[in-house]
Amino acid sequence: MSSSNFDWSSFFPLVGLVPFSVSLYSWYKNSHKQPTSESSSSEASSSILHSNTPVETSSTTSLKDAVSIVQSWRAMHLALDIGASNVRIAFQNVDANQIVFAPKMECHSMTQLLAFIAEIEVLLEKMQSQVYTHSACLALAGPVSGDRVTVTNYEQSDCSIHKNDLPARLFPEKRTYFLNDLEACSFGIVRMGLRGDLWEYMEPRNGTSSLQNQHYAVLAMGTGLGASLVFSKHIRQLDSGCSSVEFDVMPLELGHIFAPHELSQDDRDRLDFIAQRAYSSKYSPEVEDICSGRGLIACYEYEIRNEANRKTLRAREIAELVANGDDFAQRAMYAHYKYLFKAAQHMCILVPQCKGVFLAGDNQVINEGFVNKHLTDFEKEFFNHPKENWLKDVTIFRQVRGLNLNVQGALYYIGMHLRD
User: What are the residue ranges in the chain where pLDDT is below 50?
Assistant: First the structure.
């Protein structure tokens, strides 16, 4: 699925933005390693990765249990979802539609990550396994630059990794790929959307049960705010009998634009409070200063700023208070999501051909009850814009059931490289 023939100027209806789109595409193209030609076994592997037949999945209680299943295979694909605070490892059987998940493991540094990887090697050696890794893909919470990636929220002295740091048995040099985590999530949406399975996990359900020939925004709040654009490579063929739909993904740093300044005094006071807390008032808050784990904490601290008997809590604890009906926590969560819908609005104004927004991730699933309760308000915020007419056909999809889209996307990305 090469992006080389895609007309990026179709994103930007304003002529003045075309040079920007071209330079942006040049950066994106140069930052991604091009696929290499593969053997017939790779073609078979690719067909499994992109098959519409049901996938057998197994979740294990320990890394050792996962490896004990994998050790009898001939070959595998390896997918790692590396967040800011934990890692999830999945093994795909090259010869069957079978995925084995190791349990989620807490991880805060590259040293810890490499220790988990070393443990897999040791276990395979002890089991005298002959299984080899055909291809591997690592989805990481940070910007990818060639063969090096930095996980933004890892310990600062231990947050970067180069492809050469990975053991060759598990990560073959020419078939190991790095993805930004939201880029991987977006490819997961593509994989599940093209299979027709996506709307088992999303609301509202899509009547066509498949992705359409249009662009989509993807946003996920976690330790930070992830964002990307899923774009149709056939958008100009919309009215000329497009026979197939093909997608690619551009990761974005939407979380680092300035948060929109609202008109109400409460909103202005909140932004001033967060600016002081985050930057000693030198800068305005970024969207991620509100739409993230630390952002929820900041919003809660704003709400309790005059409450002497209240203390700072972790994001998870605030979410628990929301579920229990605490007024301060609910107001913080309301602001948290209000600005997320505003961020989605920004993306759809910048790219008018974007006709769908996916709010994805574990936190979205956990908070779905609250979001659904206030959905009318949040959608009103989304459509509140002078160019409301540009937004009228946009559908906002919310993930309502648990599914690791990052792993699905990492496996789909491997398949893209195998079939090209």
Answer: 1-40, 238-243
Three-class secondary structure of residue 258 per DSSP: strand
Nearest to 116 by CA among 86, 157, 153: 86
Identify which of 170, 146, 193, 252 has the alpha carbon closest to the alpha carbon of residue 405.
Answer: 193
Q: Which amino acid is at 214?
A: Q
Answer yes or no: are the C-beta atoms of 215 and 230 closer than 8 Å.
Answer: yes
pLDDT of residue 29: 42
Q: What is the rounded (10 degree) CA torsion for 120, 124, 126, 130?
A: -170
Q: Mapping DSSP to helix (H, G, I), strand (E, B) and coil, where does residue 21 land? A: helix
Count Cα neighbours of 195 within 13 Å in the Cβ-side half-sphere. Answer: 23
One-character DSSP codes across 49-116:
HT--SPPEEEE-SSHHHHHHHHTTSSEEEEEEEE-SSEEEEEEEETTSSEEEEPPPEE--SHHHHHHH
Q: Please state, in angstroms and rounded to a whole number, the distance separating the CA atoms of residues 51 and 287.
A: 38
Angle between helices 375-383 and 327-350 (to 10 degrees): 30
Q: What is residue 224's predicted lDDT score, i.e. its pLDDT? A: 87
Helices within 196-326 (DSSP H only): 265-279, 293-303, 315-323
Two tokens at 244? Answer: 């197939």
pLDDT digits (tens, 9 = 90+) for 148-168: 888 877 888 899 989 999 999
The two most distant CA atoms of the chain are separated, in Å, by 68
Q: Strands (DSSP E) along 102-214, which ranges? A: 105-106, 132-140, 144-145, 148-150, 160-162, 176-180, 202-203
Strand 176-180 to 132-140 pairing? parallel
Verify cis geometry, omega within 30 degrees of 0, for the bond prior to 204: yes
SS3 413: helix
- Is residue 368 within 8 Å of residue 328, measured between CB atoms? no
**Tokens matching residue 252:** 């974005």
Q: Please tell me the predicted confidence (pLDDT) of residue 22.
A: 38
Global confidence as pTM: 0.81
Query: What angle in degrees, to the nearest 10, is found between the helix axes of 40-49 and 405-419?
Result: 150
Bin 161: left if φ > 0, else alpha if -120 < ψ < 50, else beta.
Answer: beta
Helix (H) or strand (E) holding 19: helix 18-30
- The residues pairing with 250 across neighbouring beta strands, listed in sequence order, are 229
CA 254 → CA 17, 223, 224, 225, distances in Å?
18, 14, 11, 8
Report the distance separating Cα 262 and Cα 249, nearest Å. Answer: 31
pLDDT for the residue numbered 237: 53
